[in-house]
Amino acid sequence: MRRNFTLAYLILVAVQILICNYFHVSHYVMLSILPAMILCLPPKCGPTVSLLIAFATGLAVDFLADGVPGLNAMALLPVAMLRLPVIRFVFGEDVFESGGFSLRRNGILKVSFAIILVLALFLILYILADGAGTRPFWFNISRFGASLLAGYLLSLLIVDILSPDNRDL
Amino acid sequence: MPRDRKVIPVLLSIAIFILLEIVSLHMMSNRKDLQRLWITKASHGFMALTWGTSQSIAHYFQLGKENRQLAMENLDLQKALQHVKAEERAWLLDSMKAGMKTVAGYTYIPAEIVKISSNSQHNYLIINKGSEDGVRPNSGIMTSCGAIGIIDAVDRHYSYGLSFRNADVTVSARLGMEGAVAPLSWDGRSTNGAILKEVPLQYKFSPGDTVWTSGWSAFFPPDVPLGTVGESKIINGSTNNINVSLFQDFTALRYVTIVSNDGLAEIKELESGGEGLTE
Protein backbone atom coordinates (compact mmCIF):
# COMPACT_ATOMS: atom_id res chain seq x y z
CA MET A 1 0.00 0.00 0.00
CA ARG A 2 1.58 3.27 -1.10
CA ARG A 3 0.96 6.36 1.03
CA ASN A 4 0.93 10.06 0.37
CA PHE A 5 4.12 11.39 1.97
CA THR A 6 2.74 14.81 2.91
CA LEU A 7 -0.32 13.31 4.54
CA ALA A 8 1.75 10.75 6.39
CA TYR A 9 4.12 13.48 7.53
CA LEU A 10 1.28 15.64 8.87
CA ILE A 11 -0.25 12.68 10.69
CA LEU A 12 3.14 11.92 12.28
CA VAL A 13 3.39 15.56 13.42
CA ALA A 14 0.03 15.08 15.09
CA VAL A 15 1.32 11.84 16.65
CA GLN A 16 4.32 13.68 18.04
CA ILE A 17 2.02 16.30 19.56
CA LEU A 18 -0.04 13.52 21.14
CA ILE A 19 3.11 11.87 22.49
CA CYS A 20 4.25 15.15 24.03
CA ASN A 21 0.85 15.79 25.60
CA TYR A 22 -0.19 12.36 26.82
CA PHE A 23 2.75 9.94 26.86
CA HIS A 24 4.93 11.05 29.75
CA VAL A 25 6.84 7.83 30.31
CA SER A 26 9.46 9.25 32.66
CA HIS A 27 11.52 12.34 33.36
CA TYR A 28 14.38 10.41 31.83
CA VAL A 29 12.66 9.58 28.55
CA MET A 30 11.79 12.17 25.92
CA LEU A 31 10.10 10.45 23.01
CA SER A 32 10.71 12.24 19.73
CA ILE A 33 10.16 11.10 16.19
CA LEU A 34 10.88 14.49 14.64
CA PRO A 35 14.55 13.82 13.71
CA ALA A 36 13.59 10.63 11.88
CA MET A 37 10.82 12.48 10.06
CA ILE A 38 13.24 15.18 8.90
CA LEU A 39 15.75 12.50 7.90
CA CYS A 40 13.09 10.82 5.75
CA LEU A 41 12.27 13.94 3.75
CA PRO A 42 12.82 13.20 0.05
CA PRO A 43 16.45 13.79 -1.02
CA LYS A 44 15.31 16.21 -3.68
CA CYS A 45 14.35 18.61 -0.86
CA GLY A 46 17.29 20.98 -0.58
CA PRO A 47 18.66 22.37 2.68
CA THR A 48 16.56 25.52 2.51
CA VAL A 49 13.28 23.65 2.13
CA SER A 50 14.32 21.16 4.82
CA LEU A 51 15.11 24.00 7.19
CA LEU A 52 11.75 25.64 6.64
CA ILE A 53 9.90 22.34 7.11
CA ALA A 54 11.89 21.57 10.26
CA PHE A 55 11.23 25.02 11.67
CA ALA A 56 7.50 24.80 10.97
CA THR A 57 7.29 21.27 12.37
CA GLY A 58 9.21 22.18 15.50
CA LEU A 59 7.13 25.26 16.13
CA ALA A 60 3.89 23.35 15.62
CA VAL A 61 4.91 20.78 18.23
CA ASP A 62 6.17 23.51 20.59
CA PHE A 63 2.96 25.50 20.49
CA LEU A 64 0.50 22.63 20.39
CA ALA A 65 2.21 20.47 22.98
CA ASP A 66 2.48 23.14 25.69
CA GLY A 67 6.26 23.00 25.73
CA VAL A 68 8.91 25.67 25.63
CA PRO A 69 8.22 27.70 22.46
CA GLY A 70 11.09 27.36 20.03
CA LEU A 71 12.74 24.43 21.82
CA ASN A 72 11.91 21.69 19.30
CA ALA A 73 12.49 24.09 16.40
CA MET A 74 15.90 25.08 17.75
CA ALA A 75 16.98 21.43 18.18
CA LEU A 76 15.52 20.30 14.88
CA LEU A 77 17.12 22.94 12.65
CA PRO A 78 20.67 21.48 12.86
CA VAL A 79 19.20 18.08 11.95
CA ALA A 80 17.69 19.61 8.82
CA MET A 81 20.92 21.41 8.03
CA LEU A 82 23.01 18.23 8.29
CA ARG A 83 20.42 15.86 6.81
CA LEU A 84 21.93 15.62 3.34
CA PRO A 85 25.55 15.27 4.51
CA VAL A 86 24.45 12.48 6.88
CA ILE A 87 22.57 10.67 4.09
CA ARG A 88 25.51 11.08 1.73
CA PHE A 89 27.95 9.84 4.40
CA VAL A 90 25.88 6.80 5.49
CA PHE A 91 24.14 5.66 2.30
CA GLY A 92 26.33 7.12 -0.46
CA GLU A 93 25.30 8.98 -3.61
CA ASP A 94 23.10 6.17 -4.95
CA VAL A 95 20.31 7.04 -2.60
CA PHE A 96 19.76 10.36 -4.41
CA GLU A 97 19.06 8.54 -7.68
CA SER A 98 16.75 6.01 -6.08
CA GLY A 99 14.66 8.69 -4.38
CA GLY A 100 15.60 7.90 -0.78
CA PHE A 101 16.63 5.18 1.61
CA SER A 102 14.64 2.40 3.21
CA LEU A 103 15.13 -0.48 5.61
CA ARG A 104 14.58 -2.99 2.83
CA ARG A 105 17.08 -1.52 0.37
CA ASN A 106 19.78 -0.17 2.67
CA GLY A 107 19.61 -2.55 5.58
CA ILE A 108 18.88 -1.98 9.24
CA LEU A 109 22.51 -1.23 10.17
CA LYS A 110 22.96 1.78 7.90
CA VAL A 111 19.47 3.08 8.68
CA SER A 112 20.09 2.67 12.41
CA PHE A 113 23.39 4.51 12.13
CA ALA A 114 21.76 7.44 10.33
CA ILE A 115 18.89 7.55 12.84
CA ILE A 116 21.26 7.51 15.80
CA LEU A 117 23.36 10.33 14.32
CA VAL A 118 20.45 12.72 13.80
CA LEU A 119 18.62 11.65 16.97
CA ALA A 120 21.74 12.15 19.08
CA LEU A 121 22.27 15.62 17.63
CA PHE A 122 18.66 16.53 18.29
CA LEU A 123 18.65 15.13 21.84
CA ILE A 124 21.90 16.82 22.86
CA LEU A 125 20.56 20.23 21.89
CA TYR A 126 17.08 19.55 23.25
CA ILE A 127 18.25 18.25 26.64
CA LEU A 128 20.79 21.05 27.10
CA ALA A 129 18.31 23.78 26.21
CA ASP A 130 15.51 22.18 28.21
CA GLY A 131 17.67 21.88 31.32
CA ALA A 132 19.14 25.37 30.76
CA GLY A 133 22.18 24.52 32.82
CA THR A 134 20.13 23.67 35.94
CA ARG A 135 20.14 19.88 35.66
CA PRO A 136 23.03 17.73 36.93
CA PHE A 137 25.39 16.27 34.37
CA TRP A 138 24.49 12.64 35.18
CA PHE A 139 20.79 13.38 34.86
CA ASN A 140 21.37 14.79 31.39
CA ILE A 141 23.49 11.79 30.40
CA SER A 142 20.86 9.34 31.68
CA ARG A 143 18.10 11.23 29.93
CA PHE A 144 20.10 11.28 26.73
CA GLY A 145 20.76 7.52 26.85
CA ALA A 146 17.20 6.53 27.67
CA SER A 147 15.71 8.93 25.14
CA LEU A 148 18.11 7.78 22.44
CA LEU A 149 17.17 4.14 22.97
CA ALA A 150 13.42 4.79 23.04
CA GLY A 151 13.57 7.30 20.17
CA TYR A 152 15.65 4.91 18.07
CA LEU A 153 13.08 2.12 18.30
CA LEU A 154 10.28 4.53 17.48
CA SER A 155 12.26 6.08 14.64
CA LEU A 156 12.74 2.70 12.95
CA LEU A 157 8.96 2.50 12.65
CA ILE A 158 8.82 6.07 11.29
CA VAL A 159 11.47 5.30 8.67
CA ASP A 160 9.47 2.30 7.57
CA ILE A 161 6.31 4.39 7.31
CA LEU A 162 7.95 7.24 5.36
CA SER A 163 10.29 5.11 3.24
CA PRO A 164 10.09 5.52 -0.57
CA ASP A 165 8.98 1.90 -0.89
CA ASN A 166 5.69 2.89 0.71
CA ARG A 167 5.68 6.41 -0.64
CA ASP A 168 3.33 7.99 -3.15
CA LEU A 169 5.00 11.29 -3.95
CA MET B 1 30.42 29.56 -12.76
CA PRO B 2 29.32 26.00 -11.76
CA ARG B 3 31.20 26.49 -8.51
CA ASP B 4 29.25 29.70 -7.85
CA ARG B 5 26.04 27.81 -8.47
CA LYS B 6 26.95 25.41 -5.66
CA VAL B 7 28.27 28.01 -3.25
CA ILE B 8 25.33 30.41 -3.34
CA PRO B 9 22.68 27.87 -2.21
CA VAL B 10 24.97 26.67 0.55
CA LEU B 11 25.50 30.22 1.79
CA LEU B 12 21.79 30.88 1.51
CA SER B 13 20.90 27.79 3.52
CA ILE B 14 23.48 28.71 6.17
CA ALA B 15 22.00 32.20 6.41
CA ILE B 16 18.47 30.78 6.72
CA PHE B 17 19.67 28.29 9.33
CA ILE B 18 21.23 31.05 11.43
CA LEU B 19 18.17 33.25 11.03
CA LEU B 20 15.76 30.48 12.06
CA GLU B 21 17.96 29.48 15.00
CA ILE B 22 17.97 33.08 16.21
CA VAL B 23 14.18 33.21 15.89
CA SER B 24 13.87 29.95 17.85
CA LEU B 25 16.21 31.12 20.58
CA HIS B 26 14.43 34.45 20.74
CA MET B 27 11.10 32.69 21.19
CA MET B 28 12.56 30.49 23.90
CA SER B 29 14.05 33.40 25.81
CA ASN B 30 10.88 35.45 25.53
CA ARG B 31 8.59 32.85 27.06
CA LYS B 32 10.67 31.13 29.72
CA ASP B 33 12.90 32.83 32.31
CA LEU B 34 15.10 29.79 32.77
CA GLN B 35 15.90 29.57 29.07
CA ARG B 36 16.33 33.35 28.87
CA LEU B 37 18.97 33.25 31.60
CA TRP B 38 20.69 30.29 29.96
CA ILE B 39 20.73 31.93 26.53
CA THR B 40 21.88 35.25 27.99
CA LYS B 41 24.69 33.50 29.82
CA ALA B 42 25.70 31.58 26.69
CA SER B 43 25.55 34.70 24.51
CA HIS B 44 27.66 36.64 27.01
CA GLY B 45 30.20 33.81 27.02
CA PHE B 46 30.24 33.78 23.23
CA MET B 47 30.62 37.55 23.04
CA ALA B 48 33.41 37.52 25.61
CA LEU B 49 35.20 34.82 23.65
CA THR B 50 34.74 36.71 20.37
CA TRP B 51 35.89 40.02 21.83
CA GLY B 52 38.78 38.37 23.62
CA THR B 53 39.91 36.65 20.44
CA SER B 54 39.53 39.80 18.35
CA GLN B 55 41.46 41.77 20.96
CA SER B 56 44.21 39.14 20.95
CA ILE B 57 44.42 39.28 17.16
CA ALA B 58 44.49 43.08 17.16
CA HIS B 59 47.13 43.02 19.89
CA TYR B 60 49.20 40.55 17.88
CA PHE B 61 49.27 42.87 14.88
CA GLN B 62 50.27 45.78 17.14
CA LEU B 63 53.27 43.88 18.52
CA GLY B 64 55.62 45.32 15.90
CA LYS B 65 54.77 48.86 16.98
CA GLU B 66 55.10 47.94 20.67
CA ASN B 67 58.44 46.27 20.01
CA ARG B 68 59.73 49.44 18.35
CA GLN B 69 58.52 51.47 21.33
CA LEU B 70 60.20 49.04 23.73
CA ALA B 71 63.41 49.19 21.72
CA MET B 72 63.38 53.00 21.94
CA GLU B 73 62.68 52.86 25.68
CA ASN B 74 65.47 50.31 26.06
CA LEU B 75 67.84 52.62 24.20
CA ASP B 76 66.91 55.54 26.47
CA LEU B 77 67.41 53.37 29.56
CA GLN B 78 70.80 52.21 28.29
CA LYS B 79 71.83 55.82 27.76
CA ALA B 80 70.65 56.79 31.24
CA LEU B 81 72.48 53.80 32.74
CA GLN B 82 75.72 54.68 30.96
CA HIS B 83 75.36 58.25 32.21
CA VAL B 84 74.87 57.08 35.82
CA LYS B 85 77.82 54.69 35.53
CA ALA B 86 80.04 57.44 34.17
CA GLU B 87 79.03 59.73 37.04
CA GLU B 88 79.65 56.97 39.59
CA ARG B 89 83.07 56.25 38.14
CA ALA B 90 83.95 59.94 38.14
CA TRP B 91 82.83 60.21 41.75
CA LEU B 92 84.94 57.22 42.78
CA LEU B 93 87.97 58.55 40.98
CA ASP B 94 87.46 61.93 42.62
CA SER B 95 87.26 60.31 46.02
CA MET B 96 90.41 58.34 45.26
CA LYS B 97 92.19 61.49 44.14
CA ALA B 98 91.19 63.08 47.41
CA GLY B 99 94.36 61.41 48.61
CA MET B 100 95.66 59.73 51.69
CA LYS B 101 94.06 59.86 55.07
CA THR B 102 95.84 59.05 58.27
CA VAL B 103 93.86 57.55 61.12
CA ALA B 104 95.20 56.09 64.37
CA GLY B 105 98.70 55.46 63.11
CA TYR B 106 97.65 53.98 59.78
CA THR B 107 97.66 55.71 56.39
CA TYR B 108 94.86 54.78 54.01
CA ILE B 109 95.21 55.18 50.23
CA PRO B 110 92.29 54.36 47.94
CA ALA B 111 93.29 52.37 44.86
CA GLU B 112 91.96 50.31 42.01
CA ILE B 113 93.03 46.82 41.03
CA VAL B 114 94.27 46.70 37.44
CA LYS B 115 95.15 43.03 37.34
CA ILE B 116 94.52 40.04 39.56
CA SER B 117 95.29 36.36 39.20
CA SER B 118 93.09 33.72 40.72
CA ASN B 119 93.95 30.33 39.27
CA SER B 120 97.15 29.36 40.97
CA GLN B 121 98.48 28.69 44.46
CA HIS B 122 100.52 31.91 44.33
CA ASN B 123 98.01 34.52 43.24
CA TYR B 124 98.94 38.16 42.95
CA LEU B 125 97.39 41.51 42.16
CA ILE B 126 98.56 44.78 40.63
CA ILE B 127 97.27 48.10 41.90
CA ASN B 128 97.20 51.46 40.15
CA LYS B 129 99.02 53.31 42.92
CA GLY B 130 102.79 53.39 43.30
CA SER B 131 105.58 55.07 45.22
CA GLU B 132 104.61 58.50 43.86
CA ASP B 133 101.23 58.02 45.51
CA GLY B 134 102.84 57.17 48.84
CA VAL B 135 102.56 53.40 48.68
CA ARG B 136 105.27 51.50 50.53
CA PRO B 137 106.20 47.81 50.51
CA ASN B 138 104.74 45.71 53.34
CA SER B 139 101.51 47.65 53.35
CA GLY B 140 98.25 45.86 53.67
CA ILE B 141 95.56 45.73 51.00
CA MET B 142 92.04 45.62 52.32
CA THR B 143 88.40 46.44 51.76
CA SER B 144 85.59 46.92 54.22
CA CYS B 145 85.00 43.17 53.91
CA GLY B 146 88.43 42.05 54.92
CA ALA B 147 92.09 41.63 54.06
CA ILE B 148 92.94 41.26 50.38
CA GLY B 149 96.71 40.95 50.38
CA ILE B 150 100.06 42.55 51.13
CA ILE B 151 102.08 44.95 48.97
CA ASP B 152 105.29 43.16 47.99
CA ALA B 153 106.93 45.55 45.51
CA VAL B 154 106.28 49.12 44.51
CA ASP B 155 106.92 50.89 41.22
CA ARG B 156 106.39 54.61 40.50
CA HIS B 157 102.80 54.25 39.44
CA TYR B 158 101.89 50.65 40.23
CA SER B 159 102.29 48.21 43.07
CA TYR B 160 102.61 44.46 43.08
CA GLY B 161 100.84 42.67 45.87
CA LEU B 162 100.51 39.11 47.07
CA SER B 163 96.90 38.10 47.20
CA PHE B 164 95.45 36.61 50.38
CA ARG B 165 94.71 33.68 48.09
CA ASN B 166 98.40 32.92 48.07
CA ALA B 167 99.91 30.03 49.98
CA ASP B 168 102.67 32.31 51.30
CA VAL B 169 100.40 34.94 52.86
CA THR B 170 99.21 34.75 56.44
CA VAL B 171 97.18 37.30 58.37
CA SER B 172 97.11 37.52 62.13
CA ALA B 173 93.48 37.07 63.17
CA ARG B 174 91.50 37.06 66.37
CA LEU B 175 88.67 34.66 67.12
CA GLY B 176 85.90 36.98 68.28
CA MET B 177 86.65 40.40 69.75
CA GLU B 178 88.53 38.99 72.74
CA GLY B 179 89.41 35.45 71.69
CA ALA B 180 92.54 33.66 70.68
CA VAL B 181 94.90 35.13 68.11
CA ALA B 182 96.06 32.76 65.42
CA PRO B 183 97.38 32.83 61.85
CA LEU B 184 94.73 32.89 59.13
CA SER B 185 95.61 31.67 55.67
CA TRP B 186 93.83 30.67 52.47
CA ASP B 187 92.62 27.07 52.38
CA GLY B 188 94.12 26.69 48.88
CA ARG B 189 90.91 25.52 47.26
CA SER B 190 87.80 27.66 47.48
CA THR B 191 87.21 31.29 46.52
CA ASN B 192 86.21 32.42 50.01
CA GLY B 193 87.57 29.77 52.33
CA ALA B 194 90.38 30.20 54.87
CA ILE B 195 91.79 28.27 57.84
CA LEU B 196 92.51 29.68 61.26
CA LYS B 197 95.31 27.44 62.49
CA GLU B 198 96.63 26.41 65.85
CA VAL B 199 93.85 27.75 68.06
CA PRO B 200 94.40 26.39 71.59
CA LEU B 201 91.73 23.97 72.75
CA GLN B 202 90.74 26.02 75.80
CA TYR B 203 89.28 28.79 73.64
CA LYS B 204 85.60 28.16 73.07
CA PHE B 205 83.87 29.24 69.90
CA SER B 206 80.70 28.52 67.94
CA PRO B 207 80.00 28.31 64.23
CA GLY B 208 79.02 31.78 63.01
CA ASP B 209 81.43 33.67 65.31
CA THR B 210 83.23 36.51 63.56
CA VAL B 211 86.96 36.47 62.93
CA TRP B 212 88.72 39.89 63.04
CA THR B 213 92.20 41.15 62.33
CA SER B 214 94.24 41.17 65.53
CA GLY B 215 96.40 44.19 64.71
CA TRP B 216 99.51 42.25 65.68
CA SER B 217 100.82 41.75 62.18
CA ALA B 218 101.70 45.43 61.59
CA PHE B 219 100.15 45.16 58.11
CA PHE B 220 96.51 45.59 59.05
CA PRO B 221 94.79 47.67 61.69
CA PRO B 222 92.92 45.72 64.38
CA ASP B 223 89.24 44.79 64.34
CA VAL B 224 88.67 44.56 60.61
CA PRO B 225 86.06 41.83 60.08
CA LEU B 226 87.40 38.95 57.98
CA GLY B 227 84.85 36.14 58.03
CA THR B 228 82.82 33.73 60.12
CA VAL B 229 83.70 30.49 61.84
CA GLY B 230 82.64 27.22 60.25
CA GLU B 231 83.62 23.65 61.00
CA SER B 232 86.70 22.82 63.09
CA LYS B 233 89.10 19.94 63.48
CA ILE B 234 91.40 19.01 66.38
CA ILE B 235 95.01 18.56 65.28
CA ASN B 236 97.31 16.26 67.23
CA GLY B 237 94.99 16.52 70.23
CA SER B 238 96.35 19.96 71.13
CA THR B 239 95.00 22.65 68.81
CA ASN B 240 92.00 23.40 66.62
CA ASN B 241 92.10 24.17 62.93
CA ILE B 242 88.98 26.23 62.17
CA ASN B 243 87.47 26.75 58.75
CA VAL B 244 86.58 30.40 58.10
CA SER B 245 84.17 31.65 55.48
CA LEU B 246 85.53 35.01 54.30
CA PHE B 247 83.26 38.03 53.85
CA GLN B 248 85.13 39.21 50.79
CA ASP B 249 84.15 37.83 47.42
CA PHE B 250 87.45 37.72 45.55
CA THR B 251 85.72 37.29 42.21
CA ALA B 252 84.12 40.75 42.47
CA LEU B 253 87.10 42.81 43.56
CA ARG B 254 87.82 46.20 42.02
CA TYR B 255 88.36 49.02 44.49
CA VAL B 256 90.64 48.50 47.50
CA THR B 257 92.35 50.48 50.20
CA ILE B 258 96.10 50.33 50.81
CA VAL B 259 96.82 50.60 54.49
CA SER B 260 100.33 51.42 55.79
CA ASN B 261 101.40 51.23 59.36
CA ASP B 262 103.19 54.50 60.09
CA GLY B 263 105.14 52.85 62.86
CA LEU B 264 106.25 49.85 60.83
CA ALA B 265 109.87 51.03 60.47
CA GLU B 266 110.12 51.66 64.19
CA ILE B 267 108.64 48.25 64.98
CA LYS B 268 111.07 46.58 62.58
CA GLU B 269 113.92 48.46 64.18
CA LEU B 270 112.83 47.35 67.63
CA GLU B 271 112.46 43.79 66.43
CA SER B 272 115.94 43.78 64.94
CA GLY B 273 117.31 45.40 68.10
CA GLY B 274 115.61 42.82 70.28
CA GLU B 275 117.05 40.05 68.19
CA GLY B 276 120.50 41.63 68.62
CA LEU B 277 120.08 41.75 72.38
CA THR B 278 118.98 38.13 72.42
CA GLU B 279 121.90 37.15 70.39
Strand content of chain A: under 5%
The helicity of chain A comes to over 70%
- Please report the total strand number of chain B as a whole number: 13
**β content of chain B, as a range?**
25-35%
The 3D shape of chain A can be described as globular
Kindly report how far apart the N and C termini of chain B lie.
Answer: 124 Å
At CATH level 2, the architecture of the domain at 101-265 in chain B is: Beta Barrel
User: Terminal Cα separation of chain A, in Å?
Assistant: 13 Å
Structural class of chain A: mainly alpha
Strand line-up across the major sheet of chain A: 1-2
Mean pLDDT across the residues of chain A is 83
Our count of helices of chain B gives: 4
Amount of helix of chain B: 25-40%
Radius of gyration of chain B: 38 Å
Can you give keywords for this protein?
heterodimer; A: mainly alpha; two-stranded parallel ribbon; 7 helices; B: 279 residues; Thrombin, subunit H; 6-stranded antiparallel β-barrel; 6-stranded antiparallel barrel; 39% helix; elongated
Provide structural commentary.
The complex is a heterodimer of chains A (169) and B (279). Chain A has helices at residues 5-22, 34-39, 47-64, 71-91, 94-98, 103-131, 137-162, and strands spanning 3-4, 167-168. Chain A is globular. Chain A has a two-stranded parallel sheet with strand order 1-2. Chain A is mainly alpha-helical and 169 residues long. Chain A contains 7 helices and 2 strands; from the N terminus they run E-H-H-H-H-H-H-H-E. Chain A is 73% helix and 2% strand. Chain B is α+β, with helices and mostly antiparallel strands and 279 residues long. Chain B is built from 4 helices and 13 strands. Chain B has a 6-stranded antiparallel β-barrel with strand order 2-3-6-5-4-13. In chain B, a hairpin with a 2-residue loop joins strand 1 and strand 2 (106-116). In chain B, helix 1 (2-31) packs across helix 2 (33-61). The longest helix of chain B has 35 residues, at 63-97. The radius of gyration of chain B is 38 Å and the shape is elongated. Chain B starts with a helix and ends with a helix. The relative contact order of chain B is 0.11. The mean pLDDT of chain B is 81. Chains A and B meet through helix 3 and helix 4 of A and helix 1 and helix 2 of B.
